[in-house]
Amino acid sequence: MIVVSVCKYKLHEEEFVRPVVEIVSRVEDVEVVRIDEELDFKGEKVIVCGTALKDFEYLKKDVSWIKKCKSYLGICSGYQMLAKAYSLRLERIEKIGVYEVKNVRQNGLTSKKKFKAYFLHELAIPEKKYEEIEILSICSEVAAFKVKEKNFYGVSFHPEVLNPEVIENFLAKKI
Amino acid sequence: MKVCVLYSGGKDSNLALVKAMECFEVKCLVSLKPKSEESEIFHYPNVELVKLQAKALDIPLILVNCLDDEKESLNALKLGLKRVKKMGVEGVVTGAIRSTYQATRFQKVCKELNLWCFNPLWLREETSILEEILKLGFETIIVRVAGLSERFLGAKINRKVLSELKKMRKFVNVAGEGGEYETFVLYAPHFRKRIKIIESEVTKKNEYEATLIIKRAELIRL
After folding, report:
1. Residues B158 and B73 placed together within one structural domain of the fold
2. Domain assignment of residue B55, yes or no
């Protein structure tokens, strides 16, 4: 499993990358790669972690490599990068703290109909109909989505804080 | 980047300080002095002694008085951070571990003041924090217990205490995240002087809560 850090500052990796790596490494080997390295994950399983509220460097990076992955889970910044890869418009939606999320479509990330999740972002995709994605969960924004016909998922919240089963289910190929 | 560290004088904020010093220039420490131990957000015991710790660390300290309720505590924090921004500080480092309540409030304050927010201990497994401070050579004592036996009051956190805390992990959070105990760091490798307690006394609030009040302490050259 490849875990990608998009953090501008190394110290933020302790907060946004290490907790995800700890969950993944209970199940399988992890390789951590920084966004500024050459990214070519053809056929790989990839998780892209979040970063700090003030950090937007990752949105300037190339995202064409995402479509070559075998499976992809984007957390917060990773969700935004997946949205960018599929030309979905991100809007300024600020969310800091714990909010209730509602599942609107049965999916393998979590079986709960409603759950509390921790958010830390300023950008998300608004709730409306999209051609290329299926909306899985909402929270006055698209909280989780799947790219149709692909194993590509984006969650706007941080599952490593209150919902580790989202990462575990992604790893367990329940999706 | 120049940063400040939200500093209570306990093990977590000192470990966060170590992490901050490895990456950035720590311009100052910011401590809030709640009126009483009822404070909803900030650490109370011996908060006056952070002045001595700041001297031991040789890092300037911004100490802000605050009332106990959330709104007043956050207003005081904003006041303190506005002052440090004038010193060129661009980021705030905290020792938050697992409380989404605390983290949410720190993130919102930083956002409002356009400051970077760093939480290097976030979601750390509790035992690993105690293991790390022991490995680094922190000399830490327990200064308040709430739910933990009073016999731990004043005890140095060492392998034996860690092993006892681990045995009680079904009932208490090993790192004291549930407020079971609070700590004070007398010495760590980033200190330039060591703190020696000269006089202390125990005050008991009730059967389950007690505080070690450090009445006199001094700095010792290394």
Report:
1. no
2. yes
Asked which of B55, B83, B118 is the last residue of a domain, the reply is B118
pLDDT score at B45: 56
Those residues with Cβ within 8 angstroms of residue A31's Cβ, 6 or more apart along the chain or in another chain: A1, A2, A3
Q: Are residues B204 and B146 in the same domain?
A: yes
Active site residue A76: yes
Q: Are residues B12 and B110 in the same domain?
A: yes
CB-based contact A15 B122, cutoff 8 Å? yes
When the pLDDT of each residue in chain B is averaged and rounded to a whole number, the result is: 91
Q: Give the span between the Cα atoms of A132 and A86, in whole angstroms.
A: 8
Give, for A99, the enclosing helix (H) or strand (E). Answer: strand A91-103
pLDDT digits (tens, 9 = 90+) for B51-89: 999 999 999 999 998 876 788 889 999 999 999 999 999
Contact A14 B121 (CB under 8 A): yes
Nearest CA in chain A to B108: A96
Q: Write down the ipTM of this complex.
A: 0.94
Q: Is the dihedral of CA B177, B103, B5, A32 positive or negative?
A: positive
Contact A23, A13 (CB under 8 A): no
Domains of chain B: total:
2
Share of chain B above pLDDT 70, in %: 95
* CB < 8 Å to B116, chain A: 9, 52, 54
Over residues A79-89, mean pLDDT:
97
Interface test with A, best of B74, B116, B132 (most A CBs within 10 A): B116
Asked if B189 contacts B137 with a C-beta cutoff of 8 angstroms, the reply is yes
Cα–Cα nearest to A33, from A72, A51, A6 = A6
